[in-house]
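Following up on my earlier thread - several people asked me to post the actual chain instead of describing it. Fair enough. Here it is, all 88 residues.
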Amino acid sequence: MTNDYEDAAAAAVQQKSNGRGTCVSGPTTVPLGLAEVAWDLPSIRTLAERDHTNILSLKVYDRGSHFPAHDAPDLLVGDIWQFFGKVR
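Reply from S.P.:
Thanks for posting it. Predicted structure:
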């Protein structure tokens, strides 16, 4: 029987030795869009703005849940179209 905790500790060492799990040197510059729906965990805008310098869209909607494609597809599709319209 293996000890899961020992395996996790070994994996952490492996990740650090091959470059994974290290801190990034600065904020990302990839275009980013964020959408917050009413019945899901709120996004943490300050962390998003700290870690990403190219936020093209950050919207808060008054309806929808964790599965907006199911219960608010019109919001999701509109948000995606609006975001990619800015990326062009």
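The first helix runs from residue 4 to 17. That should answer part of your original question.
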